[in-house]
Each structure stands twice: as C-alpha cells, then as structure tokens.
C-alpha cells in the first residue's frame, strides 16, 4: 500500500481525490491546508476519517511517514512544499505548473535529483487519447518527419477572480498545456522563441489575454502558437486545433474527435502533388490515458520500478521554459534563446 499526504485542499484537490479513490494500492493518510477547516471538509467529503489533518506539512509528514506527497498548492508555495517532501524522503507529484519561476523550477528539479526521489508534474494533456495516437502515428514515419507544427487556441471564458487580473494570463495560466503537447507529439526540444502579447478592445482581462509565438524546436521543426482567452465565436477545443505538416503529408486534429491525415500519392494535379487519406491507428493497448488517474498510476509505477515517469520534472521543466521564454520575449520584444542551462 502506497501512503500519500495531499497538501492543498482547494477546488483542484477534488480532481486528485476523485482519481485517487479509484486506484487500488493507494491510501491518503494525511490532508494539509493553511485552512484546517477546509482540510477537514475534504476528509468528510471523501470519507477519509483516518487521515491526519493539519496546517503544517512538516508536522503531518513526521506523524504519517508517507511514501509520497501530492502537491496541489498555489505555484508560489511549490518550492517550499517540494523541499519539505524531499527532506522527509518522500516522492513528489505536483500540479502544474512545476514552479512559479525558472529559478524555483531548477531548484526543485535539482533537489529531487539530490534526494534520489521521483518527481513528476500533472501535465494531463499528454494523457488525452488523440495526443497519444498522434505521437505514435508520427513516430511510425507514415507521413515522414514533422517539419511545421501549428496550434490554435481560441476560447472566451469569463472566469472572474484572479485570472482576469493577472499578468500574462494566457501564457502563464493555459499555454503550457499546448506547449507540452506539441513537444510530446513531435519530439521537439525548444531552442528559441519570439512572442507578442496584446490586449484586444473586446477583452475583459487586465493583461496578456492574446498571444502569438513562434518556437524553434530544432532539427528543422518549427512550432507556431496562436491563442486568445477572449475570442467569442467559433471557439476551438480546450486542447487547441492542430495542423502538423510533415515531409510526405499532413495531419489535422480539431482537438476533439476529428483526426485525419493525408499522405502524398503518385502524380500531380496541375501544380499540386496528389494526396490520399491515411489511417491514424487507434490507441495502442499500452497507452495510458485518463487524466489525473493515468498520471497518478504512472507515478506509482515509477516509484515501484525505479523507472522515471513520463511527466518527470526534469523533462517538464522544458515545457515550463517555453512559457517563461515566451513571456520574456513578449516583455522585451526580442527573440529569446531557450538554452539547456535555462531548463
């Protein structure tokens, strides 16, 4: 039985606890929150009568001696939680983003390495079925190597609250999902970015609701992102709408169920090479999906086997570097290198 303490009992914790109670071999032995009543409410809601409740993570870890910590706190508190978990010899699974700054991200990843503990991030878009299918299809070489990756994200949610007041709201709050999915599907390693942000006249956000970015993924691959939090009408999926151009064909995905590909066929029609449809195979039985549950199970498997999880912090920091690189580019108006040292 794997014993876990969850810290941060706000609204997001429900997603974690919903997934956790579906998983055999996992026991939530402690709940931590600065508001003890909120932690107690979660314990009652999920019938965790034996869980230790507290406002101090160190104290609850001392009392329960768990195998792992689930971090669902606000990003500004991530580093403190991570260092506490590793000091108690716990593995750590954290909500996205990995950290609130490049320095804190690097410090957390380095602390995990020094402690010899598994550290992973809930980057759950990787566990979407069609993201898995696209990665396998492209890796098969059926349409050749990807060269140009394009993602559009146009949704207009009225969140209210902190999002409508925060800076860089699209890049900092949402874009990492698309950035990480792009890296994952095509095997890209971010090298540089040029990004522009703006605030349209129809926006109800304070700053950064719209952005356009061009990333160099290395190896002849370029990724473009166009997004908006205030684009009413013809909205895209929350997973974005994709076009991936490869050496011998293209793939398009609407972010929902419409996924199709074409490959170059013999002959031309005028100036244009002929193409024909090609099937994108269904999910492989080995593919793990199902959002938080899939990631938690992957994390548990990594602890049991010693194999690094797919969303390990040392890899996810590259997607976070894309976010901070895009923000720096938008602020400075120049192209920004995303070096290995920055990751």
TrEMBL record:
<dbReference type="InterPro" id="IPR000683">
    <property type="entry name" value="Gfo/Idh/MocA-like_OxRdtase_N"/>
</dbReference>
<protein>
    <submittedName>
        <fullName>Oxidoreductase</fullName>
    </submittedName>
</protein>
<feature type="domain" description="Gfo/Idh/MocA-like oxidoreductase N-terminal">
    <location>
        <begin position="2"/>
        <end position="121"/>
    </location>
</feature>
<dbReference type="GO" id="GO:0000166">
    <property type="term" value="F:nucleotide binding"/>
</dbReference>
<dbReference type="InterPro" id="IPR051450">
    <property type="entry name" value="Gfo/Idh/MocA_Oxidoreductases"/>
</dbReference>
<dbReference type="Pfam" id="PF22725">
    <property type="entry name" value="GFO_IDH_MocA_C3"/>
</dbReference>
<feature type="domain" description="GFO/IDH/MocA-like oxidoreductase">
    <location>
        <begin position="131"/>
        <end position="251"/>
    </location>
</feature>
<dbReference type="Pfam" id="PF01408">
    <property type="entry name" value="GFO_IDH_MocA"/>
</dbReference>
<dbReference type="InterPro" id="IPR055170">
    <property type="entry name" value="GFO_IDH_MocA-like_dom"/>
</dbReference>
<dbReference type="InterPro" id="IPR036291">
    <property type="entry name" value="NAD(P)-bd_dom_sf"/>
</dbReference>
């Amino acid at each position: 039985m794997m014993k876990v303490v969850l810290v941060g009992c706000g609204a997001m914790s429900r997603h974690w606890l919903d997934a956790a109670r579906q998983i055999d071999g996992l026991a939530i032995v402690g709940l931590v929150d600065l508001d003890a009543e909120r932690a107690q409410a979660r314990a009652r809601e999920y019938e965790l009568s034996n869980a230790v409740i507290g406002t101090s993570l160190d104290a609850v870890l001392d009392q329960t001696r768990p195998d792992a910590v689930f971090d669902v706190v606000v990003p500004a508190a991530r580093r403190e939680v991570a260092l506490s978990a590793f000091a108690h010899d716990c593995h750590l699974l954290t909500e996205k983003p990995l950290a609130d700054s490049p320095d804190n991200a690097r410090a957390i990843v380095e602390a995990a390495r020094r402690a010899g503990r598994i550290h992973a991030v809930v980057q759950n878009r990787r566990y979407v079925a069609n993201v898995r299918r696209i990665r396998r299809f492209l890796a098969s070489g059926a349409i050749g190597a990807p060269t140009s990756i394009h993602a559009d994200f146009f949704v207009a949610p009225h969140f209210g609250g902190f999002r409508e007041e925060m800076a860089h709201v699209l890049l900092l709050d949402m874009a990492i999902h698309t950035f990480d999915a792009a890296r994952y599907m095509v095997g890209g390693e971010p090298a540089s970015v040029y990004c522009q942000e703006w605030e349209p006249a129809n926006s109800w956000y304070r700053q950064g609701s719209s952005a356009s970015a061009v990333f160099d993924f290395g190896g002849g691959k370029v990724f473009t992102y166009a997004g908006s939090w205030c684009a009413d009408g013809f909205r895209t999926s929350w997973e974005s709408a994709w076009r991936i151009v490869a050496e011998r064909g293209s793939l398009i995905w609407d972010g929902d169920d419409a996924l199709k590909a074409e490959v170059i066929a013999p002959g031309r029609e005028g100036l244009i090479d002929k193409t024909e449809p090609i099937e994108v195979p269904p999910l492989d039985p080995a593919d793990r999906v199902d959002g938080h549950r899939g990631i938690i199970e992957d994390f548990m498997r990594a602890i049991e086997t010693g194999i690094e999880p797919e969303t390990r912090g040392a890899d996810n920091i590259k997607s976070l570097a894309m976010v901070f690189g895009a923000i720096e580019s938008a602020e400075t108006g120049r192209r920004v290198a995303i070096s290995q040292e920055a990751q």
